[in-house]
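User: Can you predict the 3D structure for this chain?
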Amino acid sequence: MAAFWSGSAAAFLATERASIVGTLAEAQIRHFRSNEVQQLRAWEISIDILRAALPAAGDWWVLLEYPLLRLGRRADAIILSPGAVLVLEFKAGAEHFDNAGREQVEDYALDLQDFHAGCRRRPILPILVATAAKARPQTLPLALAGALPVLDADAESLAGLLHRIATSLPAPAVAIDPQSWIEAPYRPVPTIVEAACMLYGRHDVAEIRAARADTHNLTRTTDAILQAIAEARAANGRVILFVTGIPGAGKTLCGLNAAFGDAGDARATFLTGNPTLVHVLREALARDAIARGADRRAARQQMEAAIQALPRFRDHHVARGEIPAERIVVIDEAQRCWSRDHAIRKTRDRPVQLTDSEPAHLLDIMARHDGFAAVICLVGSGQEIHDGEGGLAEWGLALASHPGWRVLAAPNTQSADARQRLGDVEGVQTRAALHLDVPVRQIRSAAAGPWADAVLAGDAAAAHDIAEAAGGIPYRLTRSLDALRRWLRVAPRGTQRGGLLASSGASRLRAEGLGVELPHMDAQAVARWFLDRWPDVRASDALETVATEFSCQGLELDYAGLCWDGDLIRLPGRHPWLVRDFRGTRWTLPAQPEAVLNRLNSYRVLLTRARYQTVMFVPRGDARDATRHPAVFDAVADFLSACGAGVLTSETAIETPAEPELLLL
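Assistant: Here is the predicted structure, written as structure tokens:
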């Protein structure tokens, strides 16, 4: 049975209201809670209003309660006209048009724009219907392809609005075919937070896949992980998988799927050494559970088991020697686990002292199970930002002294970089499906990751070629902090969010008024920054607090403002970047090669956080301040321009989706 009602406008007008409501109720009975009576009444009201307002056009089509997976919601009504898609959200009894309602219906339109193949190159008109309000006269927007500004309507004015749209839309070159639209791929790529909530609630796991129809490796990798777990469970054995991927390719999505989506009767948990990711995912899951009726305290306790800080999991089981409750553990950014020497030195004065590397201890812990156990290691490239991170080499050494594990690994685990080489592990089986090489974080461009890599490699020609081949990249450059803030306030739409990012080494940004850094170890501060919204001044879109690589690694923003500083600069005639640390009153050069690599990786993290677009703010400096010499910043800006970054201007501040079609409405 379809999960929504669908029919032509004529069929909608001819069908009894009770029949339509009955179909919706039967299809969605599992979603009902204590408010089912109110839901039935809301359907009746919206159906009556829509029936009175809808033109009796034989070529229009009506869909009711259409599911939008990424948002975890259903659009009240979608109307397919020959040349446009209309998305309606009804607020029964509402006397005002509030921002929350406008954001909700705009989110629906944006979701269809980005992820529904049937909406490509089509205008999408979001309409908020507050039934008891009084809509003001409004001008219809130009029907460009993509999500248009929200239109308001009340119970009486909806008919006039739909009539104006019907008579103003020009005949399209190819009309929308309703059945083809319904069958067209809808492949949403949720944010990490959205995915965690959906997967933990076991909602349509199979539908979480890549946005572009030609991207299959996310689904392929997920299937390979779940198959390996199933085989190990059937054989009552132990398996460890090494899943690799470029930044933004969906490793965390695959890991969350393994931890929450299909663990069967086995306990599973998601382990990460990234405290920010722990704080945000736990809080998001708890808020979602509470919104669905769970007890607040119970929800928060439950999330502590679902998302765990790797150091606490490790220390608890090292100290007590007990068998873990979980038979499946997913280890995020596993290459960042501590080496043996660092682990011993770091814990020498702590209550729990480590005697081996983190990989060795984790294998010890999971091997305590009698029979089935699975370890899924998610391995990123260029994500090391701390000292003492041992890389894949430490996992290879640990496996050499821990026999009994079936080892499945992506092909590129034998890197030229010794630290990122798994080594000669006995019996390792290579699986191409365990590597993710197609970026999915950046919604409208697959070139963002490769471009950032070329920029940080100091290769302007390669970066420029990538930008040209892609027809443009989601990166812009500005020398004005005011312009950056203005852009971050207007670029996000619906519930999209923006925020300011900067390197943890960006000590002289305080001269620009950017001295307030998000404390990444403060759980509540981090959760509020990523989950709350303006006018809460603690939220990211208040644009008052800057998040560093330690705060945002593993998480995402829709629009990012990256504030560059003198910790990563260019010098005339010098090919590579110059990394600097600020000490006292001057910049110094780090002595350790690892520190240089970590700083470059920090900027890689910052450059790849945005799902839609990043604007890089490079200050102009001050000739009177030796720590902020203008020539240094000019060289950085010139290099980024040579790499193909566009300039943020009033004309380019807000970009429409690719390939817009101008249709006068």
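The chain has three domains: 5-183, 217-274+307-436, 448-647. Residues 5-183 form one domain.
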